[in-house]
């Protein structure tokens, strides 16, 4: 870089930091308004406000002009200028700015290239530009003429830049968004190669500047023309092409299927070497001369008519995408918005019959649609495209509509033609959008009459301005002359490069992107200097730097140690994190950059931490665009943890806004994000993957959210839980240049029962091998354990090593050998199992452990143990239950809270004061208080954790309706427990928790102490595969323990360790197992009889009697109210025998009697056991010669709400048996319970 001083003494160099709590743009606009009103003489001065957003240029120009007008300063006329405007519009705006019709311009950097206006005395930057050079070049336009400064009384021209704490983080993210990848060069080469095949001269031809749009891999790149220019530059550096001159106004033509010899266009194509297979580039001026036409529109019309006759083919493809709004309207085949716009234009035009001029400001915006009101100014500008109408400006800046046609109805007919064309164009555009294909311009035009090309162009503009479609390309593109180096061009561009010359170019390519970031850092460093003298000195030294290293040293050496920029640039936080990784983890972080990877990561090996460092490394060190990184996690809790930790790390590194651009989902969340409203209402979460695969088979635009291009990196967490559907999803989401990194542990594959219907075994080892082969992935291992003590790991390694089907044969290694941990085991005494569990918990609590997990094999065992544990330890610790048959949303307390939220469905979560989390807490508290309910708060704590995660992870514009959907879709309580742990940590809540859970529910969790009781389940284990699955299950349980592990070993556990088959077992010594059945099945929420194994409820007259039952203690309250208000988890229940003679039902054969389920606290009978089960229970105790009239040992596990099914749904035939109040409210409450029955 050469020494240069692009600023002068008359430049003020002012940097305004947005005050904390103020919104950036409103504050900046208000300041700009005040500065200009106080200091600007519109007769002598001009002002430029630089933005990097075309839409905001237009929006803010209108807003600022309105602000001036309100304050009586109509002399401060405001305009806008950007590259998206037509050439004539840009020329007109520049002329108006120069002569004073407009004195303030909102502009992108497109303004001023080669423009010299001497009296620019105000230059504002609404936000920082992309680098120091751009900033200096843009302020360098101000105050060049000393005489004009003197006349305006401007000793210094005002150069004001606005920035906030996050401005440079966002600017970095923008750089990453536009970053090119080495693989992009290969995509560009392939696009040229495909285009080349159609050319008459394959070694010397012309390409459009937007050819990039025809590449599926490059179509979504920002600033496509600039991006293509850079890609062509690097292809030329590689020696594959040679760029020639820029060519203006040409079009590619080939012969059609029915060429006419007499056609001058056919002759022109043939003369230039074209054929049906090969196209040629022909200048528009040549076509004009050949056909004797006077305008470009006439040329286009002639070309499209010849294309429609199939004499020639116009070889011009456009990338036109449907917007979400356009897809919705197209699906409904009701294009209400453009019909409304059409109607409004016709309506106002009736008043124009005898007028020659109408003021734009006098037109009334329609009331029918917010979207139309926003688009209305553009709609009126559409009139400028119609014959007989023009828009022009006057000196006061107010646009006028001028009617110049002799036939006042001609342009109205054109409006009607546009209305007829719209549905045809939209249908064809949608078809190609779904296939992710470009659209041939001639074919699209052939759908219309083809009489006038300007109407076709007007129609596309109309649909774009109304928000139906998106496209950026011109019909007739500017083009580039290209020569192909045949020998070099045919060879692929690989990463990393293999040839020495290519490696040198690749290094320059990487350096270029590093330089761009340091140029932005230089602008941030300029702001950090306090005085004008320091800033001038810094600029001089900056331009004296010869390379990146010198720029880096200049910035870092001049910044103080306390500088926020210095801290970020030194990557202190990232380096600190990387230095804490072990050698295995570092190898994984480095390996995933260039190659697909399959990682077997044992429990406690820092898998999640290493994964987030992989992501951070891609963003911080490799300058990867966060938009190009997708993480698919096992459940919402893992998503919450990844988001939280990445947010903190990236914020410390100065990449705060990058966090919001990352894509982190569960597989189900990804489906919801991709398909959105297209998901059928009846589709359950479990059915999401199948629905995704079904819909994306025919509609490729739904493969990724918003039709995005394939990500460069896909991380898959907990890969051992993959199945056929998820694997197929990966194949569809990935692109040709995608790197896949799968992380998991086949030793922790415990959901094999979900795969038993497929050809794959219960073990996930086959999926690991398939991934390694299909994606040519390198195999990597993480075996250093940071969680458990040495003795615990030794036992876990010994146990899992018995399995024969495993990938990872290396044992887990403790990170610190001196931490032993506690391991012990004791034999089960069957008749004292409950006492043994309670005694061991009490023993563990003496060790002051903050989290104690008791991990059961099945839900039934958990709930039979819950009551005694709650009674003994409820005053010593908070007891969490991780299990259950029902959805979280069906629990009574949660269902009531969701009811209370319904009236607020449309409210945004960021609209609540002081915050959304406080609002949810107040809702729950008010429910309990107003209802006088005696509820436990376990489920409430989980709801608060879920609300905390939702508020932190979902966009602020999400609504209460979105939150309700999120809660209703939670199907796994393990997510909630992990979220609760994360929330407690974030709030620094210190409390002792006893967690009762099944082993299947604690994946990804860890606890200070773990107790594993013996399994008490009637289950045959009759194959080696089933034995190994059971071992993996216990291995997962063992490796959850940090400091303490105790195992109660029964006969079943001994056989599993030895590899012996297991027959069904019974342990009558500890009592008779008792579990309630369900009313209607809550899991599918469609209604049905459910299990109904023990209770008579919905199927006979008992339902009416007990749902309408009046409690006799003088309250007059029905049974449903008692269940709703007074029954809690852990309450004692009893079975009371009743002789048949007391209550008789004619529909059933007479039996000796039956049991009532009795709630002790309220002294209320709440259900009845079926006759068949009553007989079994009674018979068991009679056989043992024990009293059977009153049985104890049962406890409430939860209270759930079930929907009364609608007519025609499963279970609806029993609705007539329900009492009227239940049928009216459309739901009822069921008490779920479990235990071991004993005599009192």
Provide a descriptive summary of the structure in words:
With 1240 residues, the protein is of the alpha/beta class. The protein folds into seven domains: 14-164, 3-Layer(aba) Sandwich (Rossmann fold); 179-249 and 477-494, Arc Repressor Mutant, subunit A, CATH 1.10.10.580; 253-315, no CATH class; 321-346 and 375-471, no CATH class; 564-782, P-loop containing nucleotide triphosphate hydrolases (Rossmann fold, 3-Layer(aba) Sandwich); 811-883 and 987-1062, P-loop containing nucleotide triphosphate hydrolases (Rossmann fold, 3-Layer(aba) Sandwich); 886-971, no CATH class. 42% of the residues lie in helices and 17% in strands. The chain contains 45 helices and 40 strands. A seven-stranded antiparallel beta sheet has the order 34-40-39-36-37-38-35, sandwiched between helices.
Characteristic terms for this protein:
1240 residues; Rossmann fold; Arc Repressor Mutant, subunit A; 6-stranded parallel beta sheet; 7-stranded antiparallel beta sheet; alpha/beta; 40 strands
What is the 3D form?
A: elongated
The secondary-structure class comes to alpha/beta
Strand arrangement within the widest β-sheet reads 34-40-39-36-37-38-35
Q: What is the strand content? A: 15-25%
